[in-house]
Every structure is written in C-alpha cells, then in structure tokens.
C-alpha cells in the first residue's frame, strides 16, 4: 500500500466511503422504527417498507450496474450512483411525508446497486495482486463498521427525536466521496452499445429479484403466505422463466460470460459468499432474541456489545488482507467460515442459560462474539478477492454484480427462512417465556451453523490468491 500514488489512495478512500454509507443504510432505519411509527403515525408493515424498499432496489439493480460498468465508463456509473444516494438522502431529510420517504429510499437503493459492482471492479483494477488482499480486507472492514454503526447511530438519533438526521448524515459523506471520485478515479473507456441483447438480462433478472425479495419479505411467520406475497413470487418465477426462454433462444446475452472466468473457482466463491450473506442476516435474529428475552441484557449493554463486535470485525478484516498474502485466501475463507459456525453453536448452547448468570453471560458473549467477528472478518474480504481473481478484466463489473446479486438474494432468503424456523420452534409461546425463546434461539443458531459448514465445504474450490 505504501507504493501507491496519492491519487490512488484518494480513489480508494472514495470507494470505501461510498460502500460505508451503503452498508450503514442497511441497518440504520430498522432501529428507527419506533420513532417513525410515532412521528408519522404508521403501522408496523408500513414502516418496514421504508427499509425493505431500499434493500429491494439495491438487490434489483446490481446486475444492471455491473453490465453498465463494463459497457460504459465505470467512473460515470459510480458517480451517478453517488448522486442518486445523495438525492434520495436529501429528499428523505426534507420530506416529512411517508410516501416521499419511500421514494427516497428506493432511489437510494438504486444508487447503491450502481455503486457496489463498480467499487469491487475498481479495487481489482487499482491494486496489484500483492496489495489486493489488503485492499479487499479494508473494504470488508468498512462494510462491517458501517453495518455495526447503523444501530448505534440510530439509537443516538432516536435520543434527539429527529429521524431526519438519519438521512442528513449521508450527505456530507456522499459529497466527499463524489469529490474524491472526480479527482482520483480513472476514467474507463469502452465502445460498448446499450443493445437489447446486452441489457435485457440484467433488467429482467433485476425485476425478478425485486419481485421475489419483496414477496418473501412480506411473508408473515405467524400467518404463512399472504395473497400479495404469492402474487409477487409468481411474478418473479414468470420473469425468471422468460429470462431462461430468451437466453436459450439466443436473444439475450448471458448474465456473466462464464467462458471468461475460471468457472468452478468463481462459482464456488459466489455461492460460499451467498451462504455467508444469508447466514449473517439469519444470525442476528436468534442473537437479538437471546440478548433481549433470554439473557435480558439492558439496552446499553447490547449497544456496547455490538460496537465491540464491529471494532473486532474491522480489525480482523484488515488483518485478513495481510494474512492472505502469507497463507492464501482459501485457508482464511475456510477457517473463517468454520470459526463463525463454531461461534453459532456456542451461542446456541448458551441460549439455554437463564438471565440469573448475568456476569457469566456477558463474559461468554464477549468471547463468542470475538470468535464470530474473527470468522466473518477473515472470510468476507478474501471471498470477494477470490471471486475477482477468477474473472477477466473485460467482465469484472458484471462478475462483481453477479457476486453481490446472489449474496443479496440469499440474504433475504436466509432472513425469512430463519424467521420461520425460529417462529415454529417458539410454537406461539410468548416472548416473556425465556426458556421457550432460548430453545427457539438454539434452533436458529444451529441452522446458521450448519449453513456455514456447507459454505466452508464449498470454499475448498475457490481460487487461492
């Protein structure tokens, strides 16, 4: 990293700042639900849509962002994404109207979908192989810090009683990232045309994913499928069948030209990352239930534990970049996934211990959180690095988009799946029944742990860098 030019350092900072805001916005709004409900007089389903629309738009535009980045100037696509996130944030901060907030969050999600594949592609092209591992480690650490700071910032915002701050906080960071990108990122030239054959696959597949993610997110663990969820999932499958039909007829280009990749190593990285993404989303439900209803930690304790976890993850994320040059990415990925899996099994066992053992539970939680954050920290960045090592430069944006697209889809599936599993294990009993909640948390942690072991097995095939 010391040999890099100042311009390249500033460009990398721009990429990290943009990704930080994207990940911050995934966890910030859910912790403001009570404030939004009281201030805007919303129902639970209405307020949940504020965050769901962001996630849906983000997932649905990743493929489009990747294809645009490879066909047109990657720097311009990145800048457009930043402007959309900034414009959406400004609209949300000034609106004070529920429907305008929904529009604002959707626009922000589209911008995030344009930014993410360009970020991974720029990092892959900006750094030599010896520096790339550390760069992706820092990039992964930034993601962890953004995700972890979301709840903390939300709690701070709630103390002031002004949810608008959650939108305002994005704007100076986005502006700084935009200025740095204009000054420091290199223009990429391409003579590609925006033809129907090139653009139809990412657009239709993106719409299919939007419909599917929305369909599973409106499912109610207590009531099963709703009419709306069935309609959206059917639409998703119809769009998916349309994509397959058009692709077989040769009317549309493939989502990724796998002939320009090391196919098995790339696919192994994609699906291992997908299982990690789904596991991370699923992991927070039994963890939250255990913290609040089984061990009965107070709010300050929970916030301190989550801040501690974010810092630990960031440290190990950076170290993973250094270690990958010494031991290779494959060893770190497999080790990280297994360690994260072990932490889930340990948390599952801990969920049977009652709140009377408060001091022991806090100490044990700290130790297990260190293991969990060590695991995710040394797996997240190296997985991204390994996936990019397996693709050619000419398709790097669309390969990065597909990598993130699959991960986002599995994240949504993982969250809904564990919600059903935990709800079924709880069997309709009240959250005040600590023993029942503890058993349900154990089932959830066990499910996540098994998924991570499967991911570790798949990771044997990733490219070692």
Automatic annotation (TrEMBL):
It is found in: Cell membrane. Its main location: membrane. InterPro entries: MFS, MFS_dom, MFS_trans_sf. It comes from the Bacteria. Gene3D superfamilies: MFS general substrate transporter like domains. GO terms for cellular component: plasma membrane. Pfam families: MFS_1. Residues 11-465 form the Major facilitator superfamily (MFS) profile domain. It is a multi-pass membrane protein. One of its GO terms (molecular function) is transmembrane transporter activity. The chain crosses the membrane at residues 12-36, 48-65, 77-94, 100-122, 134-153, 165-187, 199-219, 225-244, 264-285, 300-324, 331-353, 359-384, 405-426, 438-458. Coiled coil: none annotated. Keywords: Membrane, Transmembrane, Transmembrane helix, Transport. PANTHER family: MAJOR FACILITATOR SUPERFAMILY MULTIDRUG TRANSPORTER MFSC. This is Major Facilitator Superfamily transporter. It comes from Corynebacterium mustelae. The lineage of its organism: Bacteria, Bacillati, Actinomycetota, Actinomycetes, Mycobacteriales.
């Amino acid at each position: 990293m010391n040999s890099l030019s100042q311009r390249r350092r500033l460009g990398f900072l721009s990429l990290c700042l943009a990704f930080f805001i994207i990940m911050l916005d995934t966890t910030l709004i859910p912790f403001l639900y009570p404030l939004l409900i009281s201030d805007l007089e919303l129902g639970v389903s209405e307020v949940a849509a504020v965050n769901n629309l962001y996630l849906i738009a983000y997932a649905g535009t990743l493929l489009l962002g990747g294809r645009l980045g490879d066909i047109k100037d990657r720097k311009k696509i990145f800048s457009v994404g930043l402007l959309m996130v900034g414009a959406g944030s400004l609209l949300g901060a000034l609106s004070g109207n529920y429907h305008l907030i929904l529009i604002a969050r959707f626009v922000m999600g589209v911008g995030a979908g344009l930014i993410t594949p360009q970020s991974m592609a720029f990092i892959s092209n900006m750094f030599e192989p010896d520096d790339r591992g550390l760069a992706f480690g820092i990039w992964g650490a930034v993601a962890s810090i953004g995700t972890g700071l979301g709840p903390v910032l939300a709690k701070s915002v709630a103390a002031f009683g002004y949810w608008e701050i959650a939108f305002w906080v994005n704007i100076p960071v986005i502006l700084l990232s935009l200025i740095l990108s204009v000054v420091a990122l290199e223009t990429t030239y391409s003579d590609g045309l925006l033809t129907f054959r090139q653009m139809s696959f990412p657009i239709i597949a993106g719409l299919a994913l939007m419909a599917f993610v929305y369909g599973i997110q409106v499912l109610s663990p207590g009531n099963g499928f709703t009419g709306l969820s069935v309609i959206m999932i059917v639409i998703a499958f119809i769009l998916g069948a349309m994509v397959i039909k058009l692709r077989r007829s040769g009317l549309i280009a493939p989502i990724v030209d796998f002939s320009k990749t090391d196919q098995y190593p790339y696919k192994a990285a994609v699906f291992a990352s997908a299982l990690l993404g789904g596991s991370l989303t699923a992991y927070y439900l039994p963890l939250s239930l255990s913290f609040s209803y089984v061990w009965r930690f107070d709010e300050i304790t929970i916030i301190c534990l989550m801040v501690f976890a974010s810092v630990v993850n960031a440290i190990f994320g950076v170290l993973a970049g250094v270690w990958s040059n010494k031991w290779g990415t494959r060893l770190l990925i497999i080790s990280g996934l297994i360690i994260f899996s072990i932490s889930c099994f340990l948390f599952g066992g801990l969920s049977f211990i009652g709140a009377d053992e408060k001091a022991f539970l806090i100490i044990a939680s700290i130790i297990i959180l260190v293991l969990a954050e060590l695991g995710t920290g040394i797996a997240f960045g190296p997985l991204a690095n390994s996936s990019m090592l397996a693709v050619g430069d000419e398709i790097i944006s669309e390969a990065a988009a597909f990598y993130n697209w699959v991960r986002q889809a599995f994240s949504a599936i993982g969250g809904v799946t564990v919600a059903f599993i935990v709800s079924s294990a709880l069997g309709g009993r009240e959250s005040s029944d600590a023993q029942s909640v503890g058993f349900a948390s154990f089932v959830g942690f066990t499910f996540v742990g098994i998924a991570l072991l499967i991911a570790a097995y798949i990771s044997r095939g990733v490219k070692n860098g």
